[in-house]
Structure formats: structure tokens, C-alpha cells
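Minutes, project check-in
Item: structure for the 62-residue chain
Input as provided by the requester:
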Amino acid sequence: MSSRTSQRIRRRRNQCKWANARSLASLIGPRVSELCLLDVTDIRWDLGTFGKVLLRGKGRRG
């Protein structure tokens, strides 16, 4: 595989990753500070049909 092809694959993978992140953020409606704290382990695919996202933030303390 040429270096140009591998660069194109990496670029496409990154575009898909950010598109998925934007879609997820628009669906769950988190605050910016909660998005900054989000980690891959916070997505729990084993809970519910489509999984659950654990958000850490102010909660009820606000």
C-alpha cells in the first residue's frame, strides 16, 4: 500500500470518527463541559437496545 493511500484511509477514518461524535452529541444534548469529560468507556453498549452514555457533570448540584 502506498503512503498516499494510507494517508487517504487515515483521513477518511478521522472524518468518520468526528461525524459520529457530532451525531452522538446532537442526539444526547450534553453541555460542552460534559463533552470534554466524555471517554470511550462511558459508552455502555450492554445497557438497552442502543446502549447508554454516562455523562459526568453538574447533575442536580447546579
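Outcome recorded: The beta strands are 43-44, 52-53.
No further action items on this chain.
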